[in-house]
Design goal:
Elements lengths: L9 H6 L8 H8 L9 H9 L2 E14 L1 H4 L20 E2 L9 E4 L13 E5 L1 H24 L4 E11 L5 E13 L9 E2 L4 H9 L2 E16 L2 H7 L14 H22 L3 E13 L5 E14 L17
Parallel strand pairs: 5-7
Antiparallel strand pairs: 1-6, 2-3, 3-4, 4-8, 5-6, 8-10, 9-10
């Protein structure tokens, strides 16, 4: 992820694994004559018609202890902003060690008390780095299984991240169907894509080939100032009317999406992102702050030929 600690190109990281840390049980499964697939029946039929032969359902896991990151990871922003913050409501500024986007939201009333406080929005690069590490480790383990199966590619990739315990342990799980391309030698590392079936067929037809999945998570902590707090609780207060825009929330949401786009763009090089999907979540962070996180996923694709229609599929069942 560009601009974040521990940035890595996931496919290159997978290709650079000298030793495959595949569990013994997985090795037995992949070396057997049986095969498995995570594809639906239509996706399976479409992929076979394109010359993609399913080999195995492959997967990778990683468990990350998250509480240290939720606490701020030693960032100078680990405490709530105070009246000593820089002036200038809504004016972006960069703080030493903040890692990127940060914005001050002072009290608009000019009164200093327990009810009138400063706020701020700021990027959390430590959380982004932890997500990148967890996702990347699970992805590399999935690729290792695909290499063990002799695959050229991994299609229909699905990735999830979920809490395992109340102690903020998050499990990253990445799955996909390893496929062999008929009459093609294995590449240094299998390509991967979130696509399958007709969507993948249309990509090939348009003259593009999948390179790898591309994914990144951005995280912004929002400490609401007093006015934002009033509006979030449905009260205008202090001369502000109901029904107005909440500018601090709008800025946080805009920034977290912009950061996710920039992080994924840094993974693409001269390639293109296809099938982009945003997912935004919100939760309460340390000391009452509001955390906004945005995950952007898509398939990194590369043009290799002009538009070339695929051959019409042959019917497998006749009614007469």
């Amino acid at each position: 992820m560009g601009g974040h600690p521990g940035a890595t190109d996931l496919p290159e990281a997978a290709a650079g694994q000298a030793a495959r840390n595949v569990p013994e049980a997985v090795g037995r499964r992949l070396s057997s004559s049986a095969w498995s697939s995570g594809l639906s029946v239509p996706d399976f039929a479409a992929c076979v018609s394109m010359g993609l032969r399913p080999l195995a359902l492959v997967q990778g896991f990683c468990a990350m202890q998250w509480s240290a990151y939720a606490m701020g990871g030693g960032s100078p922003w680990g405490a709530r902003p105070t009246a000593g913050a820089p002036a200038g409501a809504g004016t972006p500024f960069t703080s030493a060690g903040s890692g990127g986007y940060s914005e001050s939201w002072p009290c608009p009333h000019g009164i200093f008390s327990a009810e009138h406080r400063w706020g701020g929005n700021y990027q959390q690069p430590w959380a982004e780095h932890a997500w990148s590490q967890g996702f990347g480790s699970a992805y590399v383990r999935m690729v290792e299984e695909a290499q063990q199966a002799g695959a050229q590619g991994i299609i229909d990739v699905v990735d999830t991240a979920q809490h395992l315990t109340e102690q903020s342990v998050i499990e990253f799980h990445v799955t996909g169907t390893a496929v062999a391309v008929e009459d093609s030698p294995p590449p240094p590392a299998p390509w991967s894509t979130y696509l399958a079936g007709q969507r993948l067929a249309k990509l090939f037809e348009a003259g593009f080939v999948p390179v790898s999945v591309a994914a990144a998570m951005s995280s912004v902590m929002m400490w609401p100032n007093c006015q934002t707090e009033y509006l979030l609780h449905g009260t205008g207060g202090w001369g502000y009317s109901y029904g107005g825009e909440i500018e601090q929330v709008i800025n946080a949401d805009t920034a977290v999406r912009r950061l996710a786009r920039a992080a994924v763009r840094s993974q693409l090089g001269s390639d293109t992102l296809h099938g982009a999907r945003f997912a935004v979540t919100r939760h309460t962070g340390n000391m009452g702050g509001h955390v906004v996180e945005c995950t952007l996923r898509g398939t990194r694709v590369r043009r290799f030929k002009d538009f070339d229609p695929l051959a019409a599929p042959r019917p497998t069942v006749r009614l007469s």
